Amino acid sequence: MSKLYILPFDHRSSFLKIIGIPKPPNKQGIKTAKNYKKLVYHAYLNSLKKTNEINKTNTGILVDPWLGKDILQDAKKKKLIFCYTLEKSGQQEFKFDQPDYKQHLQRLKPTYAKVLVRYNPQEDKTTNKRQAKRLAILSNYLQTTPTKFLFELLVPPTDKQLKRSKSKQSYDKKIRPALTIKAIKELQQTGVNPSIWKLEGTSSLKDLKKITKQVISFNPNSRIIILGRGESKQKAEQWIKVAAQIPEVIGFAVGRTIFQKPLENYKNKKISKTQATTQITNNFLHFIKLFENERKQKMKIPPIYIGSDHAGFKLKEKVKLYLIKKKIPFEDLGNLKFDPKDDYPDFATKVARKVAKEKTKGILLCGSSLGVCISANKIKGIRAVSPYNNKETTLSRTDDDANILCLSGWFTPVFTAFRMINTFLNTEFSKSPRHQRRINKIKKLELK
Q1: Tally of structural domains, the chain
Q2: Alpha carbon of 55 to those of 6, 47, 257, 344, 388: distances in Å?
Q3: Of 289, 286, 264, which Cα lies nearest the Cα of 275?
Q4: Do 251 and 374 belong together in one domain?
Q5: 262-273: per-residue pLDDT in tens?
Q6: What CATH number should be reported for the domain holding residue 238?
Q7: Which domain holds residue 219?
Q8: Total-model pTM
Q9: Are residues 340 and 416 in the same domain?
Q10: Using one digit for the tens of pLDDT, what is the confidence trace for 191-241?
């Protein structure tokens, strides 16, 4: 997975406080809280409809089973990425909210099982060891299930550390990064091996690179998303801008910074329910756009390579205008002019070699789409496809990790082509064991 944007609203005690529900909540309070969570969920669903840049393969939700049971079930029905919260709320030491959590995971089969852990290496060693033991057992169990492990790590300051640093801001900047590295290392040494580390951000690129180095030293396939920690919009933006510059950081999970103010304003009748939903949607999309733009500007991402013969030339020129409009970098490898005597293998192989070498994606066009597809697939490392519709395009990415999309200059309508290109470029490979196994077999065929 190369990107993951999560809207988390699994907060319980803090969520009740935001919407003014006293603790412990009565039946009406719980009902009200559930409705507020559904509002956040609908805002997330609206974000999927509002832009083609994201979809349900690279975004998801994180919600608790207490106030979000119905949401979890609906997310499963809609085949969304959804994360199931396992920790007991408001505890300084990690404990399972439900002792029979395995049964719940087996029944619901969430994409991720998430835990929140407060772990400072210089805090009570006995508590840390006790937490690590529970977490290692969970990590080992999840290795045997389809559900992946999402680990949220908070490294709060001890009284001594806070006194020495004189402020929380100074602690975050000068002390926390090194403690985070040590905490991750200690947890890894006990057998904690999540797919995703959900970490506090840093204002220093150098510090985040060191943290990332520790994460992937134990498991090169582990990835990081940056949490929001209820910080101000400005602080969250700063963390995301730094994070977007590191390839192993694939997104974020920002919650209260996105939904708290709209929910408070709705509760106080300053805005309508529709306005609150729209504001949450826009806030979520704002951070996605910020991450995407920063990544494009600061990281050297190889362009999309495109090519066609004379039969695909007209559609290719329209595709180029579409890519320009979407601000997607590309390079046209020809033909650069209409030549009725040119041959599609010449351009197909040019694009295929570039895609294979730079591990990027490509778009090829000819009359039927079949000729360029056959030609491209002769190049080692290429999985070119000629899908009939958008659904097949989606499957070519989720199941087959296709890296070249082939379109027909004769039979593919322009707007269908645009839709298929958008899907192809924004859909992630699922990395499910069965699909990875089959791709590995294809790679072995290339060696014969």
Answers
A1: 2
A2: 12, 9, 22, 33, 20
A3: 264
A4: no
A5: 999 999 999 999
A6: 3.20.20.70
A7: 4-298
A8: 0.77
A9: yes
A10: 999 999 999 999 999 999 999 999 999 999 899 999 999 999 999 999 999
